[in-house]
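Hey all, quick one. A colleague (J.T.) asked me to put the zinc ion job into the tracker so the inputs and the structure tokens live in one place instead of scattered across chat threads. No bug as far as I know, just bookkeeping. Sequence used:
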Amino acid sequence: MKLILLGAPGAGKGTQAEIISKELNIPTISTGDMIREALKSGTEMGLKAKSYMESGALVPDEVVIGIVKDRIALDDCKNGFILDGFPRTIPQAEALDSMGVDIDLVLDIEVKDEVIVKRMSGRRVCEKCGKTYHTESKPSKIEGVCDVCTGALIQRKDDQIETVKTRLETYHKETEPLKDYYDAQGKLKIVVGKDTIEATKELVMAALK
Ligand code: ADP
Ligand code: ZN
């Protein structure tokens, strides 16, 4: 199964990708994670991507297209894969088509902007161990302190409200047109994201059948 997960930042693509990956035993390819790793290890690509990412803008197409092309050529992708966060623009989708990759299904997880803003602006992450919390839905026992390692809880720069708004604007402008693109290929299915991971998972799994 070659699957694309579409949806706004914060719609829960990453979480659902993890679940599907275990159920179907195929790898998830998250361009966001790959770029963050490159950034951490200080590669040239990481340095190039840094300013775009931190401001909520998209990294240039040719950079991400290159990453994905190399990644899907690896052995573990031969039985299929889940693309999480790619393609995000029409040129990226066209590049995928011209690589000859035959996508089976494009699953769009729909969540309203207001809900996303609320979710993302409450997200906190432990500076030390990376565990994530939410000020409303998943608070730490002591405010601002990690339950696991007592590290400080911080807000990721790209989760700050102004950046979230920029990311949503970018999504509507650059990524949402992909729904029509894949609908025209007869590959699009829409799932309405629910309040809990479990409830959304049920719908996602049903859509995969
Ligand atoms: P989210 O889905 O929450 O926005 P990601 O982890 O998928 O987060 O992506 C974080 C950032 O990485 C994006 O805001 C963008 O700058 C960059 N990025 C990830 N995937 C792509 C892509 N396909 N094209 C361009 N930029 C990307
Ligand atoms: Zn911690």
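Adding what we noticed when we looked at it: The pocket of zinc ion (ligand 2) is lined by residues 126, 128-129, 131, 146, 148-149, 151 (CB under 6 Å). The beta strands are 2-7, 28-30, 81-84, 105-110, 123-126, 132-134, 153-154, 188-192.
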